[in-house]
Amino acid sequence: MGIEASGKLHVIFDTKQVTDRFQKREFVVEMSDNPKYPQVVLFQLTGDRCEQLDRLQVGDQVRIEFSLRGREWKSPTGEVKYFNSLDVWTIEPVRAGRRDSAPPLDDGDRPPPLDDFERGTGDDVPF
To answer: What domains are defined for the chain?
Structure first.
């Protein structure tokens, strides 16, 4: 099940190559359900989905479809920490109140489940 959100692109970061097989790209969206208290929310794209940001610019209004992920990490000293991520499937521009992009993904186009490294069970790094 996906979650949808929309807002204005606030920051776009460069793609980071985490390992030979895994890359991610983070970006921030300003959501203004309440213009007096806008929320700036960090999202991430992974793998070949990182390229979706190449056609967008800071200031663009966007629609995002994402999933909420969470994991537990135990440090070598035994300290337990919890991490959340908002993993984006699609990000598309929104113009004049309508979507301006390709049709939405069907279930066959959804990304595969995360492997052990992507879930965070294959390393001792907390992010």
So the answer is: 3-119 (2.40.50.140)
